[in-house]
Design a protein that fits this description.
Distance between the termini: 35 Å
Strand content: over 45%
Number of helices: 1
Order of helices and strands: EEEEEEEEEEEEEEEHEEEE
Helix content: under 10%
Largest sheet: 4 strands, antiparallel
Number of strands: 19
Strand order of the largest sheet: 1-2-3-4
Length: about 220
């Protein structure tokens, strides 16, 4: 109900243009109004009324269009009208959604598979997907570095790198090897090209893509991580 967080299992978070915090949970999505400190529940339901499940990934495509990746598939949700529409893609168990570098296509992770959509328009309720790659482990996150290169986080598989133009550098191969057994959970790419990589239990890593250095923050009593 409004005023409280609907569910305490948090799977994804994102801010909108008005600095409200949207929270994906085990039971759909919540909007946290910063000014009033109130949680507002938003149902994501298809016409059959049974699809309100885990909101694994949230992506603001525009102020009135949130893309929601759920176990049952991909949805658009309009925060103004509070209406949801299921997008027919042919896949389920969507773990992550990102825009490509040009911001005209979607990159979608489902299980071990990474897909790219055809040109995405908000009014479409279906589009075709092309499979870019199948990995040995489940995909947890996607970081689009530039128009040629995308990093993929893998659960119990570290990271992998897709580059459609250039060979992977020696440094990046060393990063892949260093993290090969890590349970990668999340990426954060900063404007100055530092890629932060969070893991479950193996620590936090900072990859400086400009200077090709990697710094690790390993769990210990000393640094408190």
């Amino acid at each position: 109900e409004n005023g409280n967080l609907k569910n305490n299992f948090i799977s994804s978070i994102v801010f909108d243009a008005y600095d409200n915090l949207w929270i994906g949970t085990l039971k759909g999505i919540n909007k946290y109004r910063i000014r009033t400190s109130i949680f507002e529940y938003n149902e994501v339901l298809a016409p059959n009324k049974i699809d309100n499940d885990i909101a694994n990934s949230l992506l603001f495509h525009s102020p009135n269009n949130i893309l929601v990746g759920m176990i049952s598939g991909l949805y658009t949700h309009n925060p103004k009208t509070k209406k949801s529409t299921k997008i027919h893609t042919g896949i389920t168990n969507i773990k992550h959604i990102s825009l490509n570098y040009e911001k005209n296509k979607l990159l979608i992770a489902s299980g071990n598979n990474l897909y790219e959509s055809d040109l995405y328009e908000a009014k479409k309720n279906s589009f075709k997907l092309s499979k870019l790659k199948t990995f040995k482990r489940e995909i947890t996150d996607i970081a689009v570095i530039n128009k040629n290169e995308t990093w993929v986080g893998l659960w119990n598989g570290g990271v992998d790198i897709i580059n459609i133009k250039n060979e992977i550098s020696k440094f990046k191969k060393e990063v892949i090897q260093k993290l090969s057994m890590s349970h990668t959970s999340v990426f954060l790419l900063t404007e100055d090209q530092n890629l932060w990589i969070g893991t479950r239990g193996e620590g936090l890593f900072k990859v400086d893509l400009n200077n090709e250095t990697i710094q690790d923050f390993i769990p210990s009593k000393e640094n408190g991580l």
